Amino acid sequence: MNRIEFMKQLERLLWDIPEQECRDAIDFYNAYFDDAGPENEAQVISELGSPGKVAAIIKADLKGNSQTETYGEYTETGYQDHRFTGGTQVPDRTNVIREREDSSRRSRGYQGRQTRSGGNLALVIIILVFTSPVWLGLAGGILGIVFGLVFGILGVVLGIGAGSLGLLAGGGAVIVTGIIKIASNPAVGLASSGAGFLMVAIGIMLLVAFLWVVAKLLPMALRAVVGLCQRIFHRGRGGDKR
């Protein structure tokens, strides 16, 4: 049974009392339901009992004769009517209202936490959007430095390798030319051959240096760059453990 059914049945049971008294009683219990709130509707109906019990209480109160004393009496816990099993107790309205207010405060507190959480997220998003030129520029600068270091190291290494190959090839060509010139012009031929041997020697030294850089320094440099990237992009995630 819900509130509407309860009140309709109560109104039908009060057909035999004065109309104004019936209206006052209906208004009183409607106000009582309103004070308790929709969430306490079932509790109020359970505490009031059946509409028949409530109607009997109202009629007994209106009669105000010896039947009231014969059939029941009002006590500290409510009206006790001996014609019905058990007693109909009107709940303490103050407690009902207090419980409703406590429930409302808990609901407002939960909704407030949700609102604050959503507000904080929105604030973070707004800050990220408005500061995006700054942190995007910083990220681009850091990436530029990293790529610059990597390609700079590779450029130096490749330059040494290419230079060594060029000196070896050029020195060999100069040596051949000098040997050919020795027959016609010994001085020029010897000078050219000497220059060619010098170029070959320098080329061999650069080739050795290139191989040493590729085998030793290049892996160390790449590991250093990777470590720098890890410290930059993984700070706070265990990248700086000691």
Walk me through what this model shows:
By secondary structure, this protein is mainly α. Helix content is 81%, strand content 3%. The model is unreliable at 65-79, 82-94 and 238-242 (pLDDT under 50).
Describe the structure concisely for a colleague.
81% of the residues lie in helices and 3% in strands. With 242 residues, the chain is mainly α. The chain has two domains: 3-91, no CATH class; 131-233.
Keywords for this entry:
242 residues, mainly alpha, 2 domains, two-stranded antiparallel ribbon, 2 strands, 81% helix, disordered C terminus
Radius of gyration computed on alpha carbons: 50 Å
SS elements, strand count: 2
Q: Output the structural class.
A: mainly alpha
Low-confidence stretches: 65-79, 82-94, 238-242
| Global mean pLDDT | 76
Keywords: Membrane, Transmembrane, Transmembrane helix
Pfam family, one: HAAS
Transmembrane segments: 118-136, 165-183, 195-215
How do the helices and strands line up, and which of them pair or pack?
Elements: H1 3-13, H2 19-36, H3 41-48, H4 51-63, H5 66-71, E1 72-75, E2 78-81, H6 93-130, H7 132-184, H8 186-233
Antiparallel strand pairs: 1-2
Keywords: Membrane, Transmembrane, Transmembrane helix
Transmembrane segments: 118-136, 165-183, 195-215
